[in-house]
């Protein structure tokens, strides 16, 4: 990519924001060197990684990495036979813990993550070594007593020896013959030996070894002869302690040397994971999404928001390039958002080709480009004594020379800074030259000639930044297909300039220019009317859709209610049939019993009762059959 474009489009500020999302200083160094790629497969892979990181963050939060250490030098040192310090071992311990925690974090409760899980699965885990270092090393300069049984024994001996020396020293301090000889009744240390401060004049009366004296020379620090042997023994114990600590450190260093390749690979993997999650965190922060990439030069940004503008103030843009047209000419008022639009497009391309999501809606599509050229802003050069026009021309000369296919050119106020007629002609010639080389171009201008050029030229399109004449303020919204009006007369009238002055100014314009502005005004009015009608149609369609959904829900409820009623009716009909059958069986049983009755009157009475029951049963059966017929219908 063109180095000037990095600066003009403020790509470095995006990288600075990205670096703040990284956990490790090593990752920040890698991110500082991040540049757009032109390999479509690499770009897609990097974008997919970012998307996976966003998925993890949204499900469980960011990967718990912390500021892991650069242990490369320590590992190489151990591999070459060196002995690591306690600080170096603690750094290795921390990295091992981070690797284990990261692997554990990415193994549960997450959707499939092919790229990230591929890294997490090869992280080296050694919980036993972790526990050993953690148990033995308390701090950067302190080893635990139970690091080994020998160290524990030595330290117990040291404690006992110290107690013995202190007891002996206290007996000396408290003896009556020593009190007059001492400067102070205290015990102190010099050169690792216990000593007593003795007055200079009593040196000959106090048996022992002189180790130091005060700055005035009035006090000598003497090791009493009675504890010299005890101090010697203590010193030997302390040397034994150091030797044992050194042995333990050597043992750990040997273990580290055996797995140096795994530890080095872990560090690389952690940097990669940190790199990916930094991109994911930036995406979440900017409410960004993954753009679709293509190699056909098609650009389509939906609701794109410049990432460096306050999200509460930025106005989204919708812009397309490369399908119906290859050159887009944007007109509109100063401070109306034209330059921001150029920067948004260029920055989006650079971000996407760096594997970063862009703050835009789903459906955004960006091309993979080899070059992005940008001539934006005030380029007046005091050092070279060049005017604004000359400085712009310096940039444009390079752009014209180097433009080709797979190139995006962004030109701000093309042709400005010189005679309007010549500037417009030169601008048109430059646009045609760049188009002829196959590049895609977005240019901003105030020139009416360029608006006409866009209307009459193949694969060139007009666009404008909207301006509210009533409020005398830009809306910052981009409108494709319609050139922007000057609005100079309307603004002047709103501000109070007399009509006579405005009418005279209109008369000074060429008739063709006036008609062109009137055509633009008509197009704008028609566009507003069409948009209003479109909005009404959309609202009507949405209302019809809502009503249809309500009717569908009501119909579904009726179906469900009908099913329930039919089910209940079937059950009741079956119950009636069952009861009728039971009654029939009972009547048959009674008829058999009637045949056994000898008394005619009793038999008649019982027969009449049976007939009555049969009639009632017949009606029940008739009703059940009617229900079944209704259900069948």
Q: Could you tell me how far the N terminus lies from the C terminus, measured between alpha carbons in angstroms?
A: 76 Å
Count of the separate structural domains: 4
Number of helices: 20
Q: Structural class from helices and strands? A: alpha/beta
Classify the helix fraction into a percent range.
55-70%
- Overall 3D shape: flat
Rg is 46 Å
Could you state the CATH homologous superfamily of the largest domain? P-loop containing nucleotide triphosphate hydrolases
Q: What is the annotated CATH architecture of the largest domain?
A: 3-Layer(aba) Sandwich
The mean pLDDT is: 84
Low-confidence stretches: 380-385
- For this structure, the CATH topology of the largest domain is Rossmann fold
Give a structural overview.
By secondary structure, the protein is an alpha/beta fold. It folds into four domains: about 10-125 and about 260-285, MutS, DNA mismatch repair protein, Chain A, domain 3; about 145-250, MutS, DNA mismatch repair protein, Chain A, domain 3 (Orthogonal Bundle); about 290-495, P-loop containing nucleotide triphosphate hydrolases (Rossmann fold), CATH 3.40.50.300; about 560-630. It contains 20 helices and 16 strands. Strands 12-13-14-10-15-16 form a six-stranded mixed beta sheet, sandwiched between helices. Strands 3-4-6-5 form a four-stranded antiparallel beta sheet. A two-stranded antiparallel sheet has the order 1-2. α3 packs across α12. The longest helix has about 80 residues, at about 510-595. The protein is flat and about 145 Å long. The protein starts with a helix and ends with a helix. Residues about 380-385 have low confidence and may be disordered.
